[in-house]
Write a structure and sequence with these properties.
Elements: H1 5-17, E1 22-27, E2 30-35, E3 49-57, E4 63-72, E5 77-80, E6 96-97, E7 102-108, E8 111-116, E9 121-126, E10 133-134, E11 139-143
Antiparallel strand pairs: 1-2, 3-4, 4-11, 5-7, 5-10, 6-9, 7-8, 9-11
Length: 144
């Protein structure tokens, strides 16, 4: 089988042009898949928790400092507080949770990714609203 370098280069250019992370081309018995920055949530080594101080602004534009264990979003997507609309929320302020409990779901590309707590604690603050878009590494809850 001969590799078509021109086709691969063209597919690579499409990644940048259309801001894609992956593209696949199939023709008869040939299949070419080109990707970049492909991160799998299961193989990700970034920490989900960080003991730190979090600075937020309130309505009077003065800084409020919270301390605790920060649970962050492992991916970019939409955060949901419950497994389905109208269902009981995974966590609420004041609720005790254990390591491994689901604290939220982050939907990315029609895939529901459960975000587990990696520590025991009491929910001090929920930092995102239900249905709100979240970024990678954004704080979603704070534990005491």
């Amino acid at each position: 089988m001969k590799i078509d370098k021109k086709l691969i280069k063209e597919l690579s250019e499409y990644l940048d042009e259309f801001k894609l992370t992956e593209i696949e081309f199939t023709e008869k018995d040939t299949k070419i898949k080109v990707s970049k920055n492909n991160i799998s949530i299961n193989n990700q080594s970034s920490p989900l928790l960080d003991n730190t101080k979090i600075i937020k602004q309130n309505n009077q534009n003065s800084n409020v400092v919270s301390s605790g264990t920060e649970v962050t979003s492992p991916i970019i997507g939409t955060a949901y507080h419950a497994p389905e609309p109208g269902a009981k929320k995974f966590v609420e302020v004041g609720k005790k949770i254990k390591k491994g409990d689901t604290v939220m779901i982050v939907e990315a590309m029609k895939t529901m990714n459960h975000v587990p707590s990696t520590a025991d604690g009491v929910v001090k603050e929920i930092c995102v609203k239900d249905g709100q878009p979240v970024e990678f590494g954004q704080t979603i809850i704070i534990l005491e």
